[in-house]
# Entry
Amino acid sequence: MQDKNERRTNRERSETTRAVLIDAARKLFIERGYAETATPDIVAAAGVTRGALYHHFEDKKALFAAVAEAEAEAVAAETEGAVLDGMRPREALIKGGEAYLAALAQPGRTRLLLLDGPAVLGRAGMDEIDNRHGTRSLRGGIVFVVQAGGLPRDLPIEAMTQLLASAYDRAALAIETGGDADAYRAALAMLIDGLAALCG
Amino acid sequence: MQDKNERRTNRERSETTRAVLIDAARKLFIERGYAETATPDIVAAAGVTRGALYHHFEDKKALFAAVAEAEAEAVAAETEGAVLDGMRPREALIKGGEAYLAALAQPGRTRLLLLDGPAVLGRAGMDEIDNRHGTRSLRGGIVFVVQAGGLPRDLPIEAMTQLLASAYDRAALAIETGGDADAYRAALAMLIDGLAALCG
DNA sequence: ATTAAAACATACAGTCTGCATGTTTCTGTG
DNA sequence: CACAGAAACATGCAGACTGTATGTTTTAAT
# Structure
C-alpha cells in the first residue's frame, strides 16, 4: 500500500506532522476562535487523525500555545523589521509601534493573541510567550530611550513596558472594531511624548 | 405537595430565580473560569434545573454576560466611592485608579472581567458593558482634567480613555500575578503626569 | 371554573475531549 | 539483513456538556 512512499526519517515525520497541525489549527483559530474550533475540524484540515494530534500535543490547549507562539514570533519579526539602525530612539519606538499595529491588523490576529490567548493560557502564560518575542523589542526600545536621556531615569522599566504594550494592544483591538486609527496613534504618541516631557 | 408554599407572583419567581442563577454562576465563574464551569454545576449550586436556566437565558454566554454586567457595576461602584467631591482633578484620577486596582484585587475578578470577558463576549461586547459602568467615570475624570487645563486640549478623549483603562487593567493583572504593585502604581502616575507635562 | 400563558423540570440528540488500545513505520543491534 | 523495540500514527470508546424539545406545575385572566 505504500508503493511510492519514499522512506522518511522519524524526525521528518514528526516535524511535518506538527507543522501541518499548527498550520491548520492557526487557520481555524484565526477564522473562528479557540472555543468554536473543534479538534476534529483541525485534524481534517491537516489531513491527519486525532490520534496524531494527541500524540504530538498534550491537549488542545498545548496546540493552541504552539500556534500562539508561532504567531507572536511572526508579529515580532514584522515589527522589528520596521526599526532601522539609523533611527533616533523616539522615532524607533513610534515606528516600531506603528509596525506592531500593522502586524496585528492581519485578520484574526488580535483575537488569537489578545483575546483567546490570555483567556486560554492565562495572562502569565501569555507573558511568557510575549517575553520571548514582541515585548523584548519594546522593552529594548524603552531602555534605549531612557539611556538616551529621553525618559525619566527612575522609570520602572518592566512595569512601563507592560503598560505601554497593553496600550498598543488595546489600540489594535479598538482599531479593528472600527475605532479611529489616527486618534489612537495620536494618543499613543502623546503617552510616549508625555513621558519624555517629564525629563524637562 | 405544595403545603406551605406561599403564593408568589410570576415576577417574583422570575427575579429570584434569575438572581440565584447569577449568584451561583458568578461564584463558579470566579472560582474556575468560564470554560471550566459547566451549566449542570451552576444549576446545582443555584438549586434549580437547567430548564430554568435556559428559560431565563438564551445560552451560557448570556448568563455570563449578566454576571459580567453585575460585576462591572460592583467594581464601578467601589471605584466611584473613592472619589470625593473636594478632590483636585489629578488627585481624583489617581485615587480613582487606586480604588479601581483595589476593586479588581478581589479574587477572580480580573479573570472574569479582563480575561474571560473579552474572550467570551468579544472586545466590543465588553466595551458595551464597560461603557455602562467603569469607563464612564474614567472618561469623566479625564474630561475633568482637560477642562481644568491639566491635559492637552487636542487630546483624543475616547482613545486616551481606552488606553489608560487598558493600562490600569494590565496593571491589575500584573499585580495579581505577583508583579511589583508599587512599580505599576508609579508607572501609571507617570503616564498621567507625563500627559499633564505636555501642557507645559 | 376554566383556559391560556408563564415558569420550571425532564429527557434526548448531537458533539466534543481525552484516553486506551490497535496498527504501521522507522531505528538500532547483532 | 533479520528482528525486537520504540516511535508515529489510527481507531474506537467512555464520559461530559450544550442546547432543544417536550412534559408538568404554578400563576394570570376572564
Notes: Residues 10, 13-14, 17, 48-52, 55-56 of chain A lie near DNA strand D (CB under 10 Å from a C1'). Chain A touches chain B through 47 residues (CB under 8 Å).
